[in-house]
Write the structure tokens for this entry.
Amino acid sequence: MKTALLAAAVFMAPSIALADPLPSWGTSASKDQIVAFVDAVTDPDNPDYVTPADRIAVFDNDGTLWAEQPVYFQLTFAMDRLAEMAAVDPSILTSPTLEAAAKGDMEAIAEGGHEALIEVLNASHSGVSVEEFQASVTKWLDTARHPDTGLPYDQMTYQPMVELLRYLRDEGFRTYIVSGGGLHFMRVFAEDAYGVPPEQVLGTYTATTYETAEGKPTIIKAPGIAFIDDKEGKPINIERTLGRRPILAGGNSDGDFAMLEWTTAGHGPRLGVLIHHTDAEREWAYDRESPIGKLVDGLDKGPDMGWVIVDMAQDWNRIYTGSE
């Protein structure tokens, strides 16, 4: 019996060792480059070996780890929350912008630009404790559905990227989210969706205050944006928070360009990964002209910097975690 078990173990060992760490990725140069990089930096006998302490990988969220069309999901949440709040107290709709947002009028918000967006976020995201706010996000994620796919928003994560995050962690990387999205919003779902704990989520954050009510200390979300974690803000926030330069960075838009540029400019082996939305059939195709996820500099300059440009239509066998 022992001989039979040993023989079976020997027979099975090669298949276990050769298991594909990225099964939702098709055979492609992009996948090969990523795997080759990970193999090199985790092999002690390779001159490009990187110690585990320095194996840090950072990823944008919107458009990189989950979808971002037709609008950023957090804005949909903000408008839904505002409508819910107004149903209880209509007096909170103190401007045409807030009235439009409560009705789901995205065009009016877009016309109002940055000021309109901040007004909606202030009205829907402030005046409550962090715990209360995050409970409202959890409730929304449990019930809201994407208008095009019908999927829950937290099932519109990209299966290939979920696999990449898991693969990196299995190889001794620490994985971080560094996004323009709201810090307290993303921390609600990041661990379940991506395996990234709250303390490894960096994002835009509102002003906050420390208050004591009925003897209970709490953190209150106040109006106003304290820090925007986008463009040059991303590497600034990474350096400030982590104190180390990552060796791998992933994004999908020019809002991520500075993060990838800074990451890959460091000494030693580095890798930048850009997700190019080319799949109009299974997702959306957009880049240079898109108001959301605009990608110009990455396409023009990324290849010369050695970045991997992932062609979603060609390189991924599957898109969403929640789809078959």
Summary: The two ends are 41 Å apart (CA to CA). The longest strand covers residues 201-213.
